[in-house]
UniProtKB/TrEMBL annotation:
<dbReference type="InterPro" id="IPR011004">
    <property type="entry name" value="Trimer_LpxA-like_sf"/>
</dbReference>
<feature type="domain" description="Nucleotidyl transferase">
    <location>
        <begin position="10"/>
        <end position="259"/>
    </location>
</feature>
<dbReference type="InterPro" id="IPR005835">
    <property type="entry name" value="NTP_transferase_dom"/>
</dbReference>
<keyword id="KW-0808">Transferase</keyword>
<dbReference type="InterPro" id="IPR029044">
    <property type="entry name" value="Nucleotide-diphossugar_trans"/>
</dbReference>
<comment type="similarity">
    <text>Belongs to the bacterial/plant glucose-1-phosphate adenylyltransferase family.</text>
</comment>
<keyword id="KW-0320">Glycogen biosynthesis</keyword>
<dbReference type="GO" id="GO:0008878">
    <property type="term" value="F:glucose-1-phosphate adenylyltransferase activity"/>
</dbReference>
<dbReference type="Pfam" id="PF24894">
    <property type="entry name" value="Hexapep_GlmU"/>
</dbReference>
<dbReference type="InterPro" id="IPR011831">
    <property type="entry name" value="ADP-Glc_PPase"/>
</dbReference>
<dbReference type="InterPro" id="IPR056818">
    <property type="entry name" value="GlmU/GlgC-like_hexapep"/>
</dbReference>
<feature type="domain" description="Glucose-1-phosphate adenylyltransferase/Bifunctional protein GlmU-like C-terminal hexapeptide">
    <location>
        <begin position="287"/>
        <end position="358"/>
    </location>
</feature>
<protein>
    <submittedName>
        <fullName>Glucose-1-phosphate adenylyltransferase</fullName>
    </submittedName>
</protein>
<keyword id="KW-0548">Nucleotidyltransferase</keyword>
<dbReference type="Pfam" id="PF00483">
    <property type="entry name" value="NTP_transferase"/>
</dbReference>
<dbReference type="GO" id="GO:0005978">
    <property type="term" value="P:glycogen biosynthetic process"/>
</dbReference>
């Protein structure tokens, strides 16, 4: 008899406020933030899941869920609109155990524990929705099973600043140390916020911590340290590109990486990043003085100079403007003679004055005003 493949339930944690990306997240959930002028951040993890053959996917929401729900489209773009399994959206609720708003990603996971127990998967794959990477999750499952692990965390050496992440110490694949956002990291290996748990171990750990009065908070506060102290924890090293898009500088840099061909290839025919974003309008380039190494969203009208930039859907760049090293979200208008350089501009802004960043990336809000 052939061995039974474990049943994997994926939980995509998409509920955080994303305050470090303000004002871009003042009116949208972070996973709904545009990516490369043609996608949304959540598309990355959902595409990785569907290409990995994982069809039981729960999206845990909290902050401004309506900004994400329309995009999710019942899972249709990722072939997750199924009679059995498929995409399930989990908003905050009242009236039973786990009610209310979560305080951190581990707390969000604990609030869904009764539903996870009822679904009774063999393994629970927990991911964030604001990272850029390519990963076949079946390889993570293989690592987990071969090691006989209770928790397998996907790790990377790609983080520019390990102190902003969970820092991992590893010996022969076994995780021997973990510190959450330490001032002095013990290594350059960090957790990518992709965790594969044995379901029974996860539920028992959550129950133990809750009953002891421990505040779960984020995954690195108590859950992962508890599992590391009492169970077998191993790593699965992500071999390629990875970036956390949770801050404005990292969001801007990820787009520069995409432009330079260093990041994820969104249109890779072997592993495309799927999306519900559709804009059939062609890009119109008229009196452009220069158009160099840029991505243009559907319906954009370009009559100025564009260098090393991402121009979102429906943007209008009037004659004589200059857009360089910038990310324009959907519907931005740059008037004639205006220069936008080293900036991220929120959707719908109309720019009538120069907006130029310096050592730090400038953020421009919907009113066209610089925020930082």
């Amino acid at each position: 008899m052939a061995p039974r493949h474990p049943r994997v339930l994926a939980l995509v944690l998409a509920g955080g406020r994303g305050g470090r990306l303000a004002p871009l997240t003042d009116h949208r959930a972070k996973p709904a933030l545009p990516l490369a002028g043609s996608h949304r951040l959540v598309d990355v993890v959902l595409s990785n899941l569907t290409h990995s053959g994982i069809s039981d996917v729960w999206v845990v929401e909290q902050y401004l869920p309506h900004s994400l729900n329309d995009h999710l489209a019942n899972g249709r773009p990722w072939d997750l609109d199924r009679t059995r399994g498929g995409l399930v959206v989990l908003p905050p609720y009242q009236g039973t155990e786990g009610e209310g708003f979560a305080d951190g990603n581990a707390d969000a996971l604990a609030r869904q524990a009764p539903l996870v127990a009822e679904a009774d998967p063999d393994l629970v794959l927990v991911t964030s929705a604001d990272h850029l990477y390519t990963l076949d999750f079946r390889e993570v499952v293989d690592t987990h099973l071969e090691a006989g692990a209770d928790l397998t965390m996907v790790t990377t050496r790609e983080a520019p600043d390990p102190s902003q992440h969970g820092v991992v110490e590893v010996e022969d694949g076994r995780v021997t140390g973990f510190a959450y956002k330490p001032e002095r990291p013990a290594s350059d290996v960090v957790a990518t916020e992709v965790f594969l748990y044995d379901t029974r171990v996860l539920l028992a750990a959550v129950e133990t911590l809750v009953e002891s009065g421990t505040e779960l908070g984020d995954y690195g506060d108590s859950l992962v340290p508890y599992l590391l102290a009492h169970h077998t924890v191993v790593e699965h090293r992500l071999p390629g590109y990875w970036r956390d898009l949770g801050t404005v500088p990292s969001y801007h840099q990820a787009h520069q990486d995409l432009l330079a061909g260093r990041g994820v290839e969104l249109g890779d025919p072997r592993w495309p990043v799927l999306t519900s974003v559709t804009d059939p309008r062609p890009v119109r380039v008229e009196q452009a003085t220069e158009l160099r190494r840029s991505l243009l969203g559907g319906g954009a009208q370009v009559s100025g100079t564009v260098r090393d930039s991402v121009v979102g859907q429906g943007c209008v760049l009037e004659p004589g403007c200059v857009v360089e090293d910038a990310v324009l979200l959907d519907g931005v208008v740059v008037r004639s003679g205006v220069t936008v350089r080293r900036a991220v501009v929120d959707s719908g802004a109309v720019l009538t004055e120069d907006r130029v960043g310096g050592d730090e990336v400038l953020v421009v809000d919907r009113d066209g005003e610089p925020v930082r």
